[in-house]
Amino acid sequence: MMKNKINLILLIILIFLFSVFILSFFNNPEKKSKTETVKTTLVSGSLINEIKNFEIKCGEEILDFKCDSFGGTSEPVWFCGYYTETGSFFLPAKQEKIEAFLSELSRPRNLEKISLNKSRAENFGLGEDYAFIIRYLSEMGSSEIRFGDSNFSETGRYLKGESDASVYLTDKSFDSFLFTGLNQWCDPYLVSRNLGTEYKLSDFMNLRNQELVELRHGGISFYEPLENEVPSKILNLEMGDTSSFKITCYKIPSENNYHVNVVYKNPLKSNSKEMEYSVKISEWTYNKL
Question: pTM (2 decimals)?
Answer without folding.
Answer: 0.80
